[in-house]
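Entry 14. Two folds queued back to back today. First construct below, sequence then structure tokens.
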Amino acid sequence: MKAENLIIPAPLPGQVIEAVQPVFPGVIVDDRRRYEFIVDEEDAGERADRYLSDRIPGFSRTRIQKAIKAGDVLIDGKPAGKPAVILREEQRVLVEISPPKPIKAAPQNIDIDIVYQDEDLAVVNKQAGLVVHPAPGNPDGTLVNALLYHCGNLSGIGGEIRPGIVHRLDKNTSGLLVVAKNDRTHYHLSDQLARRKVKREYRTIVWGRMKDMEGEINAPIGRSPSNRKKMTVLESRGRDALTYYNVIDTFPPFQYINVRLGTGRTHQIRVHFSYAGRFVLGDPEYGGRKIRRGSLSADEIRIAEKALSVIDRQALHAARLTFYHPGKSREMVFSAPLPDDFGSVLSVIGGTV
């Protein structure tokens, strides 16, 4: 659709000009995707990059920052300049996103467990130890490389090294994630994630006992000032993060827990349980491999040592995934059994798979 054929109404404060079809946020102008916002009173004072990443489905804060630096974001008709620029009430923010760059990741014949696939998407039960997409230190041998081999085409809006990726799992977290094969599906799934309509449930084993058998951990998360590879709870500068949990069973010195994400921040479950003093068993980055002997009995120390000997990663598994399929117009639910190492830990501590 050419620009001269578009009639773009002026948005009201807080409103975004959306596409003719709601699964395509924005409008298409000469192969570029356009979004237009008017900042309302509630959002005045927020950084431009955070404001836009919270409102444009499928675009991370990092990608928005790149768009700002490339001059693709205008505020009242002038380039935003810096990602940290502070927005004022009633400012007009225009974003034009360039079309995706050609995919550079190469197909590789890596065994993966494809639970389901059709012409629009695939659901994968990712094994622990597999990185989701290429990054510094992991240029290939990733899930993206495997998907390009087994599935062929993937959506482009994830970026040139992250085609098809709608959401991620940490390298050493196992379980379910959905991958888009075309841009329409990617936008739709990303929009569901942004509106918290995708249900993601995990199983984990943590040290100690939660205060309540069910509840929530509501604490903002951001990048650690002291270690940029880690995340931490930051009361003043973190992004909202919400985790729901219910205890399935207790096997001293551990609890077996079902977790549901309210938000999807990087390392969220691991950070939240660490913040609560209930470290995810086996987690080397967030305190899960340390035996705190002073608080344990001799039998509990023996069980803990045995548990750590049978798992070399965090005991965290994405067990259930629910989303609305845009092509089939219905909700789909997927479950993945616990992997062998997780089952071995349960056997050691006295539980059953």
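Second construct, same run, same settings:
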Amino acid sequence: MDQFFKSVACLGDAISVCAFRGIEETVPLMTGSITSLASFFASGGRGRDTGTTGTQTPSPLLFDPSAPAPASPRQLLWTAWQICRRSLDCFEKISPVNKLPAQWQEMRNKLEAFSLFEHVDLELNLAGAADRSLPGLAHRAHLLGPYFSVWATEGVGHYFADSHLSCDNHMTTIWGNARTHDLPIASLVPLHAGIGLALVERLLADIHGLSSNEFQKHVAECVRLFQNTFQPEYLEIIYEALGLATRNLYPHLTAKMHLSLLRVNEELPEYFWHGVGRALYFVPSSFLPGNSAPWKALEMCMKEPPNETCRRNTVAGFVWALTLVNIRQPHIMAEFLSHHGKNPQAQEAIVNGVCSALIIWARSCSNSHDLNRMNHYQCDGREPILNLWNRYVGEACRNALVYCSAKAGGEHLGKLFRYQTTARLLASKKQGHNLLFDRHRPI
């Protein structure tokens, strides 16, 4: 079985963003076959592992193989994702130990997180939703439960903003007209992340071909509009999305965007490169198990940034994504540390990435069990890895618990979307609403 997993893992080394998008454009005739395969895999399906003690819970996802054949290439791609996920469920079921290798569990987690975000309208059947307001859509995502709802809420933010902009509405009306006072505080971080990504994707689509001077002007103007539109304590989440979208969609513009943001404010590139780190975790070339353990994308985090400050932010962003996607299975983080935990250049950034991710997770869902599980994980008694775990994750968990011991609210959570020392992170909790910018200062 191990040899089988290793062989399959070698198939996807050359996958790219273009390849994913090409599926939507070139294979609509496969719809019937895809639906038949979906029915086959679903017939052997089972519940999803909650990551606690092997307990299974029904999948909250609304994939129904008996439904009519997908009507669009986008629906076809979504169905293909479902087949991949169900296939991994079946492989887990027939495994001699009833468990997937860590790299394959990570792949399944990525597929679930990606699909809940990218295809949230299909996952939640938003076309049939009676309440299409942002609070109504966020409530629909909340019903999925603690883990799945976080990714779906981010997807809801993206879906809402994209739909809003598609109707020729201006960016500044997205948040002000969205009945934001009706939103639960736990939804605000993922909603800002999703909305920010939708806005940045539109920005990049409009300016990617401009000269450096025009590019810079548009970036500065967009930053000003962000300041005037969104709540200040979540503003940096929007800035971080610039790195995620640029590196995923227009990687050749990474250096150009870095310089443009640096001219606006010297701290902005820190958030940008944190977003680049998140993007590198999800880069398609590292999506399949053959590119993890060791995690090849971490090399990219070390090589692509222009200086040490940006490098720390990129590593922290990468580890942030690794932590959140796999928070139900601490052994995946332990596997990561067994390969990369002895790199002294990355230690502080790894600790910060884990700590910030755990804080955001605690503030974005009602399930504290995930943080406690990470805090008490014993690495199955493997002493060398346990020492690394205590040095990295143990310290991060303790810091996150200290931060979260105070009542939620009045926090500047946007500041967690960049690398910072432990002392600075804990001090930021006390500082509350100190802003990166004066909202009324002209740029």
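Quick look at the second one. Residues 132-431 form one domain. The first helix runs from residue 2 to 9.
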